[in-house]
Amino acid sequence: MTAPIINSYKKRILFKRLFGSFTGFELSNYVKNIGLYFLIIFLFLLPWGLSVITLFWKNNNNNKRNNKKNTIPKICDVPIIVVGSIWAVVLLMFFLLGYLINTKKDKREDLIVDEEDSLFGNDERISLAQQFSIIFPYKGIVLIFIHSLISGLLLAYSCVFLSLDNLEQRFENNVVKWILYILGWIVISITQWSLTSKPPVETSIFQTDDELILDNLSRTFYVALLYFLSWLLEKTDVLTDKNIIFHIILVILPILWVFGLLPQFRTLYSWVLEQVVVHILGGTPAASDERSFLYFALGAISIFLSMVFGDYIKTQIGFSIAILLGFLNGVSVFPMPIIYFKMSKHLVTQFFKQPIWIIIFRVILVIIVITVVNILWTVINNVAVRPLFLILTTVLLCVICIVRDIQQQRIFFNIFRNPLYRPQKNNVYQVQNYFMEIIFPFLYKFLYFITPFLTLILGCIYIINRKQEVINKEWGAMEWILTCRFLRILWQCPIPSLMHNCVFYILEIIFHNEKWWKDTNPLLIMIVITYIFQILQQCKDKFLYACHSVASFMTDRKQYVKYQALAIFFIILYTPILLLVILISSMFNSPIVPIFGLPIFVIGYPRPVRQWPKFEIETNYTTSSTSDSLIYRDFTINLKKVINKGMSKGRYSTKVGEMYLCRYDSLILIAQIVESSFTDCIIIFKGLEQQGTSCHNVEARKIDEIFECTNNSPCSIQFPIRNAITPKVPLYCKCYTDIKSKVVGILDNPEVIALIYPTFFKVLIWKLSSMCKEIPNRWLKIDVNKELFNTYWKQFPMSWFDYVTNRYNIFENDTKNDIISVAVMFYSCVNDYTLTMESIYKIFSGKFPLTTSSFCLDEYDDAKNLIIECFRISIKFVFDESIMNNINDYNGMMNTLMMYEKEYCIDMAESPRWLEKLEEKIPNFFTLYKEDGSYYSKTLKRHLNLINFAQINPEIPKGIWANLIFELYYCTNDDDERYSIQANNKILRNIFVQSANTPLGYPVYVNAEKVTVVHCVSTHVDKVYDNTQQETNPYNDSQYDSTQYEV
């Protein structure tokens, strides 16, 4: 293996950062003043030293009480308050001194600290003020007071938590007591140092920007959280005052920080908020923190209103309100646009812009649901009905699974070929059955539509039956939270909710006589069932990811490392730990991280399902500024409509976290679902580079092989778990096809070159005739070489001129004479330029040819542009004619030129006109380009194509992205040929590295689309729900006779 795991000079940076993550210190070679080091040691140990005051307080108490039993100090004791206040004041004075030093120093002394220079040495001599600012960076006045106060409070409670009396009560062994006392105060000193100086770069880094400086408080937060949980659990008698759990956790905190198991504060906030919304409120993971907080607020309001009306008026009314609000939240009555993923100010306006029948339909649904539940509330009291619903649920689940599976190319976990699929053109399996296109999609939509209602009825029967004895009593906050969650999630995830209900009723039959089952809230059991299913799904995906990674490492010689045998031996020994890593990471919904790309997995810190802090995206596509990004933009807009229909038919999952890969020609598009509801889901689309590296091309070929094997393999049995992607039903979608070919042997052929100038003369006449009323008069005054003018006048194609002028109804002699004069003039300015392949490319690229008579056009840029445009059209015409040879009269040539004008952009790629025409969705593009000394033509054609579509194992990109964040943000690995980006066609590593968010990845196009998932039975509902404007095609054949130029 030639690619290094990490650069040799980066290893020292890694070790330096690991030391900083463990001890809290950041080393710098810039700091050389010995006095500053004494100051660092003094401030680091001062909090521990101040705590000695509490020891004197203890001795005095013992003497006054005649050595009676010691008492544990409290936070309100005077010595504790004094210690915290002294430290806060000392820190405040020091911060103010540092503030003066940082603000009063000469601005010319500001230094940009380079981490490599600070580690490897730098001969630059800097002042004492600069050295001070490196260790103690600038802090604002507000931040100074906040950090001083927090640090004082932390020290005060640490004196209580780590007091000798407290430890003596918990540990009988004096050696263990003193060890925990010393290690505990070292941890507190490390934590305090992040407030006194600056926090080190954390192993769990998730984002680099921190405008509010919240991540600086991460270590302080975890220590404070530890203190709070210890106090709360002991106060509520969950734990005794002799437990040792939290003292041990405090001591091992530096180890957890080094291994990156504890996320930074903002990451923890995003993850906790998401878990609360999903598991407690029954909502969906969101595309941003703002939207996640919005869903949390809506869920909290629903619980509050239901509890108020249910407790103070009538339980039945509160339950009806919970149904109504759960329906509104789950069905997304007020669709939120995704501009920066924030709330729209026009939600109500957007709502009333929907077709009126949709609004009426949804209102009727709500009334029906509430009516049915109220009837059930009144009459249901017979548990004998439940087994019937269990049977019905089981049958319904089986039918849904069959209907979804039978619409795929392969059935039963994609192992067996679907007999209802038949090969069509190119031996690709397509839907050729009335049942596949009409009956099964209709049946799935109907079942999906009734599933929430059936789930609601099943749940209400059980809830009402279990609550009959307390029907007129208050349910309590916990009951209302669980009830509102159930009534929300059945719309959020209707089919999984039905399956969880089915499992619950099976468990009810088994454990109905058990006391613990009767005493446990059934809705709480439902949460546990949902959580277990989530863990099982993630364990399966993570295990497959680990198997793919280990298999490729052992079998692919390109994946070998220097000590391959030793590495394999270690991986075998590591297997039991790997299984534990998979289980724990699945419990916390966190990725498993392959360290430096090797198949050695560790637990990643918890993070949101979207895997990234945020997406810098606008939906007006202003970021699409290149040819590739505009091609992907058009592809995405069209693909959105097709995916919409596929999801509505049950062919593709809409679960948050699912990822799909779209492949056509050289295009690779990654689609990631980041938010979902009953009717809508938000998908992030990422388009990858078309001209990739060798690693990219290796994995792209592997993708094509997987699709080829699925579509064309004669084998009826396959096992898709061998690959990172699982092919799904292909899609028909409009997109650009990129056709590239060498022009060697065509445009460098002397016979072809001889046709260019005559064709150019005809094209020039046609172009001037089409703009005859707009020919600038000043062109007639150009001082041209008269001798050349008279020479080329004799070559004027008069018959072609007569045909063109008659076609454009030009009959005035003056206008004809002007066209002839300008055409001959322009032709005479360039005709004596010798044409070769190189000179043809120069003119095509926009460089005007220099001839003996071209200087007369130096002040006429518009004329030069027209000549170059006509020359490009001539090149295209001659190029096509030399290949197809299908034009034999003026009518055919005229129609071809009109087609070029209407349906083609013939220009240099990435030029402003090229990009403008891409935005207009011109169907055809043509250009020439040079690569490695050879000349090529590039043609883009926009038409309906068959797009290969596959589902990605989501744990693979999650793990690769997690390692990428660690490797580039923390280890600063910058080697473009490092091991972790080498081609691995088992897990498509290089492809997923490209699809990471910038600046770590480099997708050429990123955008978000809101896809409406239609689940109604109406046959015309697709048009109603599709909010995108119907694409009009102005490029048709009505302007010219397209049948004339094909012989």
Layout of SSEs?
Layout lengths: L7 H16 L10 H17 L1 H13 L13 H27 L10 H6 L7 H8 L5 H21 L2 H7 L3 H23 L21 H18 L9 H7 L1 H6 L6 H16 L8 H24 L2 H17 L15 H6 L3 H24 L5 H21 L4 E2 L4 E2 L3 E3 L5 E3 L2 H33 L10 H16 L1 H18 L3 H5 L2 H34 L8 H24 L4 E3 L6 E3 L23 H22 L10 E6 L2 E10 L3 E8 L6 H19 L12 E3 L3 E12 L7 H21 L15 H8 L4 H10 L5 H18 L6 H8 L16 H24 L5 H14 E3 L5 H8 L4 E8 L2 E19 L2 H16 L18 H6 L10 E8 L8 H5 L22
Parallel strand pairs: 12-13
Antiparallel strand pairs: 1-2, 3-4, 5-6, 7-8, 7-14, 8-9, 9-15, 10-14, 11-14, 13-14
Membrane topology: Multi-pass membrane protein
Protein name: Pecanex C-terminal domain-containing protein
Family: Belongs to the pecanex family.
What does this structure look like?
- There is one protein chain.
- Residues 333-353, 618-622, 1015-1030 and 1032-1047 have low confidence and may be disordered.
- Helix content is 56%, strand content 9%.
- The chain is built from 37 helices and 15 strands.
- The chain has 4 domains: 28-262, no CATH class; 275-520, no CATH class; 627-741 and 941-1026, no CATH class; 750-909, no CATH class.
- Strands 7, 8, 9, 10, 11, 12, 13, 14 and 15 form a 9-stranded mixed β-sheet that branches. A two-stranded antiparallel ribbon has the order 1-2. Strands 3-4 form a two-stranded antiparallel sheet.
- With 1047 residues, the chain is an alpha+beta fold.
- Structurally, how many domains make up the residues? 4
Helix content: 55-70%
Give the mean pLDDT: 82
Structural class: alpha+beta
Report strand %.
5-15%
**Which spans have pLDDT < 50 for at least 5 consecutive residues?**
333-353, 618-622, 1015-1030, 1032-1047
> What is the overall shape?
globular
Number of contiguous helices: 37
The major sheet is characterized as:
9 strands, mixed
User: How many strand units?
Assistant: 15
Distance separating the two termini: 58 Å
Which value, in Å, is the CA radius of gyration?
A: 36 Å
Transmembrane segments: 34-57, 78-101, 141-164, 176-196, 216-233, 245-262, 293-313, 319-343, 355-377, 383-403, 446-464, 560-582
GO cellular component, one term: membrane
Family: Belongs to the pecanex family.
Protein name: Pecanex C-terminal domain-containing protein
